[in-house]
Amino acid sequence: MTDRTKPEFDAPAGPAPAELVIRDIIVGDGAEAKPGDTVTVHYAGVEYDSGEEFDSSWGRGETIQFPLRGLIQGWQDGIPGMKVGGRRELVIPPHLAYGPVGGGHFLSGKTLIFIIDLVAVG
C-alpha cells in the first residue's frame, strides 16, 4: 500500500447522527479486520460540530498499532469488516465515544468523525 496523504474532511450536513455511521471511502483488498484484532492504522479525528481536529497520526508522522478491544466502542464496532488498504470514515456519537458531557474526557459529549486508513492487521 502506498502512503496516502492525510484526508480532507467534508463539513457534515445536518444534525449529528444518534448512531454509528460507517462509510467506506476506499475499499481495501487485503486482510480483513475482525473484532479483537490488533490493527495498525493512520487516522485523523475532528469534532462533528466545530470541524476542529483533535488528533491525527499523520500529524505525528507515523502509524499507530493497538488492539481494538482497548479502543472506544465506535472503533470496536466500526473497524471490523474493513480490509487492509481501505480508508473508512466513522461518525461516532458520544455514547460510543467518550460518553456524555461531564464524563471527564475533553471529548465527552461530542460526536466525533474519524477517517481511518487500515495499514495492517495482526
UniProtKB/TrEMBL annotation:
Known EC number: 5.2.1.8
Species of provenance: Microbacterium hydrocarbonoxydans
Keyword DNA-binding found: no
PPIase FKBP-type domain boundaries: 36-122
GO terms, molecular function: peptidyl-prolyl cis-trans isomerase activity
Domain of life from the UniProt record: Bacteria
Family statement drawn from the similarity comment of this UniProt entry: Belongs to the FKBP-type PPIase family.
Keyword terms, alphabetized: Isomerase, Rotamase
Keyword Isomerase among UniProt keywords: yes
Protein name: Peptidyl-prolyl cis-trans isomerase
Pfam families for the chain: FKBP_C (PF00254)
Catalyses which reaction(s): [protein]-peptidylproline (omega=180) = [protein]-peptidylproline (omega=0)
